[in-house]
Every structure is written in structure tokens, then in C-alpha cells.
Amino acid sequence: MNEGPYKLPEGWRWVRLGEVCDYKSGVWAQADPDGIPVLRSTDFLPDGSLSYGTAIRLALSEKQLRKSILQPGDILLERSGGGPNKPVGRVAYFQGQGTYCFGNFITCLRVSRADVEPKFLFYYLFHFHISGRTEPLQTQTTNIRNLRFNEYLAITIPLPPLEEQKRIVAHLQEVQEKIKALKEAQDQTEEKLKRLEQAILNKAFRGEL
């Protein structure tokens, strides 16, 4: 596609999310202390990483294991959940630390093209959520919010050349480390740091870094 919400730098192009990744839904089973660790949205951390130690262990069948085992670079999407001040659509990045599966309120996005860096796509979807853009894509029942997934797959992604994606990823990882250090070293509010991160992410996806 050639058109998007703003003009891109030379060499960048707009793509739809559904054009660059495959997806599959999660699983559920009876709890079992000797079972397979299964990640849930409660294991998503604010910076998009995962709390592996809090994963629940479930008695998955071989079929369920094959269906939902995660690979390095997978992006976990919270498809159902959210809360009063937390729109559904959070994402987390799976680094590939051992054998893990994912639960039934989560969809796994897996990059399907060689010209897309998985961590770049993760950072864009992370930015998409924290900037409030999943809010119009959700429906709400009494106690839970659901992401309108087909509409989510249709969102547009500003895609630079692969080497530029890698440069942006390296820069954003450095920014995250600095923010982490600020959180540990200074008594700053989370809201100020969130605005800083959001401003930098916004520049990254406009080619302004």
C-alpha cells in the first residue's frame, strides 16, 4: 500500500499488520505443577518484557503443546482483558528463554517476512497501544474488554528498510535501558517516563531519530 496517515521518509513504505505476520490463538487446560509453563497477560510487564517465573503450569496435550509453543521473536498480544484505565491490546516480546506456551486470552503474532525485524514490529505495536490507539478497536462486556482482531490486523505499519529497522531497534533498546536506570536511580513519576518513551517512539516511526 502507498498511502498512510503521514508522509514517510524515502525508502519507507506502509504495510498492514496482517501482511507481515501469521497468528494463532492460545490454549488452556487443567493446572498441573509438573506441566508446561503457560504465559498469560498477567505476566506482561510494563516495558513489554515477560515475567517468566510467574507463568502458570498446565497439563497440556501434545496437540496443544505443538499448537502453542513459542519461538524467539514471537509477539504476544492481549486479545481479551484490559481494565478501567487499561485498554486491551498490550503486547509483550518473547526472547526465547526455554519452553513456554501461551494462554487462551492471548494471540501470538509471528513475523512471516524476511524484510521485517520482529523487535521492530513489537516496538511499533507497543507504541500503538501506549498511545491509546487500541481503545477504538475494543468492545466491552460486563467485566472484560475484547480486541476487534480483524480491525487490528488492518492497522498500518510504517516500514523502513531492514537495516534501518535494526538501527531503530538498537536505539530504542538503549532508550529503554536509560529509562530503567532512571526508574531505579531517581524518584520520578511513571507518567513522566511514559511520556518520554512515547515521544521517542513517535519520532522513531516517523523517521525522525
Q: Would you mind describing this structure in some detail?
A:
The protein has 209 residues and is α+β, with helices and mostly antiparallel strands. The chain has a single domain, classed as Adenine-n6-DNA-methyltransferase TaqI, Chain A, domain 2 (Alpha-Beta Complex). It is 33% helix and 23% strand. The protein contains 6 helices and 12 strands. The strands form 4 sheets. The protein has a 4-stranded antiparallel sheet with strand order 2-9-5-7. A hairpin with a 4-residue loop joins strand 10 and strand 11. Helix 3 (118-130) crosses helix 6 (190-204) and helix 5 (162-185) runs antiparallel to helix 6 (190-204). The radius of gyration is 17 Å and the shape is globular. It starts with 12 loop residues before the first strand and ends in a 5-residue tail after the last helix. 32% of the residues are buried. The model has no long low-confidence stretch (mean pLDDT 92).
Query: Cα-atom Rg, whole angstroms?
Result: 17 Å
In CATH, the topology is named Adenine-n6-DNA-methyltransferase TaqI, Chain A, domain 2
Number of domains: 1
Say how many strands there are: 12
Distance between the termini: 24 Å
What is the averaged pLDDT score? 92
CATH homologous superfamily classification: DNA methylase specificity domains
The order of strands across the largest sheet is 2-9-5-7
CATH class identity = Alpha Beta
Please state the overall shape, judged from the principal axes of the Cα atoms. globular
Helical amount: 25-40%
The helix/strand class is alpha+beta
Keywords: Coiled coil, DNA-binding, Endonuclease, Hydrolase, Nuclease, Restriction system
Pfam families: Methylase_S (PF01420)
Family: Belongs to the type-I restriction system S methylase family.
Protein name: Restriction endonuclease subunit S
